[in-house]
Design brief:
Lipase; 56% helix; disordered N terminus; alpha/beta; globular; 9% strand; 2 domains
Length: 227
């Protein structure tokens, strides 16, 4: 009887020791899994932080423009409510957006037009565009007198794009006209050329439109304007 008790006791102690050893081996593995999961969550939060920050910074703004401007919402740096733009938009066509812009009632509107205006089939596309650009600014002042207006320069294109479409050589002249118009109309003007001063690989395949990295640089440049 005593021998049986010893055997049972030995088996019980052995089972407990195995169980404790198993728990000890699982603990580091579980801790490592939890640490990896927490690190990934922090990484995801950090990755989304810039976009969230831009949406907060520009929550009371609207970007009005063509397909270049549309990239802000396409690449999801800003919500669609903050972007009123589309392919083929010119200063003339943007007059049709005044009603929608008035509904959104932004504190500030950033206008970037010209990439399509420069290609308009008329004798003097720059003069034609400036006439409609002035009308656009006038309408915004009339409907939204408290809204601040900032005009943005037309972004440069690659040399290959100029070879394909020589009229892009007039971007510099167009931007000078926009700067002068801003002065006449009491609007702000921002030259975007510093974004490209160190060279860039921001361009999409067509050499005209941009990858998301460009829009991050754009919003960084403009965030002080939005305060």
């Amino acid at each position: 009887m005593d021998m049986n008790k010893k055997i049972v006791t030995s088996l019980l102690i052995g089972s407990i020791a195995v169980a404790l050893a198993a728990c000890g081996n699982d603990a580091p593995e579980k801790q490592a899994q939890e640490t990896a999961s927490q690190t990934q969550e922090r990484g995801n939060a950090a990755a989304s932080a810039p976009e969230d920050s831009y949406q907060r910074t520009f929550e009371d703004c609207v970007f009005l423009g063509d397909s270049i401007t549309e990239g802000l919402s396409f690449h999801e740096l800003l919500d669609e409510k903050n972007v009123l733009a589309g392919a083929g938009k010119t200063a003339e066509f943007s007059l049709e957006d005044i009603g929608e812009l008035t509904k959104r009632n932004p504190k500030q509107v950033f206008i970037q037009l010209g990439s399509d205006d420069i290609l308009w089939p008329t004798d003097d596309p720059i003069a034609y565009s400036m006439k409609n650009y002035a009308k656009l600014i006038g309408k915004i002042k009339e409907k939204l007198p408290q809204t601040r207006i900032t005009l943005l320069s037309v972004t440069p294109v690659t040399e290959e794009a100029v070879k394909m479409e020589p009229r892009y050589q007039n971007i510099g002249r167009y931007n000078q006209a926009v700067k002068e118009l801003a002065g006449k109309e009491g609007a702000s003007f921002v030259d975007l050329s510093p974004i490209f001063s160190g060279g860039s690989d921001f361009y999409d395949a067509d050499g005209i439109h941009f990858k998301s990295e460009y829009y991050t640089k754009l919003l960084e440049l403009l965030k002080e304007q939005a305060k």
